[in-house]
Amino acid sequence: MKGLKQATLLLLSLVLIIAISACSFGEGHKDAIRVSEVTRSIFYAPLYAAISQGFFEEEGIYLDLTTTWGGDNTMTSLLSDGADVALVGAETSIYVYAQQATDPAINFAQLTQSDGTFLVSREKLASFDWDELKGSTFLGQRTGGMPQMVGEHVLKLNGIDPHQDLNLIQNIDFGNIPSAFASGTGDFVQLFEPQATLFENEGIGHIVASFGTESGNVPYTVFMAKQSYIKKEQEKLEAFTRALYKGQKWVDEQPVDVVAEAIVEFFEDTDVELVAQVVDRYRTQGSYATSPLLQSDAWDNLQLIMDEAGELPQQVEYSELVNTSIAESATN
């Protein structure tokens, strides 16, 4: 039975990837804002709610949304003018800036304000203490990625040296991490949703902690555009951000089942009850930003986490890569 559950979950993941990669929600309008999202995730519920509830249309914005699968692909799309706006981790703007970009990527609206991964235990624990990880085999995320940086940061906050106190596995591709754990690798694993909840529902694993809650506010997923595009299309981006803000407030205020029904169309073959479970978990822990304004303390926390992981190419001032005027205009 367990093997059947594993096969079902893996097949579901494959179906989702195939279906979503082929999707675009653009109107083909000549004035559309072309948005490249780094992945398709329930983590981005306020964006999909803004689309489904017609908030972009209310603001006169035509949206052409495509999924580019991965930070490198997303930033290549933005920097090569294949997209006007990228939905991706704020750390990527720092990497681009550090390469002396003449037209840097500027963060103008925040979508999520915490890490979106969870610590999943193979065994059901009556209570959990981070010391349980000492001496265990921990299946982490790939080196250099934001989930890995946050994961190691949280371990250190809880008195655990990730490279000394446990057996850390980081050589498995992102897409294969869930199947590796389901097949018996690791005592603990760091997983995104909906895989974490799927595993818990099926009895394959048990969520024992949230990396997002432990790491504090971080501009984990933001909308960014090239500096030249912002100068040219500031009013259009303000309208875009007003629509997003409506979506953020709507997700924060509506019953979970209503939110799930509104966004399930973006997740073909995903059960609406599962979507509701994930929305509830993310909303309860405050992962969804309720305002598009990226705060300076969150920016500082991002650079602290990157620096601690040895991945910060240089310190960058908040005012250098964060445009606050668009979000401030949209929320006033």
List the helices and strands and how they pair.
Blueprint lengths: L1 H20 L11 E5 L7 H8 L2 H4 L4 E5 L3 H9 L5 E4 L2 H8 L6 E8 L4 E5 L15 E3 L6 H12 L9 E3 L7 H6 L5 E5 L2 H8 L3 E5 H5 L5 E6 H6 L1 H20 L2 H8 L8 H13 L11 H13 L9 H4 L3 H7 L1
Helix pairs in contact: 2-11, 11-16, 12-13
Tally of individual helices: 16
Largest sheet: 5 strands, mixed
Report helical residue fraction: 40-55%
Order of helices and strands: HEHHEHEHEEEHEHEHEHEHHHHHHH
Task: Provide the CATH topology of the largest domain.
Answer: D-Maltodextrin-Binding Protein, domain 2
| Cα-to-Cα separation, first versus last residue | 55 Å
What structural class results from the helix and strand content?
alpha/beta
Mean pLDDT: 92
CATH homology superfamily name of the largest domain: Periplasmic binding protein-like II
Instruction: Indicate the overall shape.
Output: globular
Strand content: 5-15%
Task: Outline the structure in words.
This is ABC transporter substrate-binding protein. Residues 45-256 form the SsuA/THI5-like domain. InterPro entries: SsuA/THI5 (IPR015168). Keywords: Signal. By secondary structure, the protein is an alpha/beta fold. The chain folds into two domains: 2-114 and 218-331, Periplasmic binding protein-like II (D-Maltodextrin-Binding Protein, domain 2, 3-Layer(aba) Sandwich), CATH 3.40.190.10; 117-215, Periplasmic binding protein-like II (D-Maltodextrin-Binding Protein, domain 2). Helix content is 45%, strand content 15%. The protein has a five-stranded mixed sheet with strand order 2-1-3-10-4, with helices on both faces. A five-stranded mixed sheet has the order 7-6-8-5-9. Strand 6 (137-139), helix 6 (146-157) and strand 7 form a beta-alpha-beta unit. Helix 2 (45-52) packs across helix 11 and helix 11 crosses helix 16 (325-331). Residues 1-24 have low confidence and may be disordered.
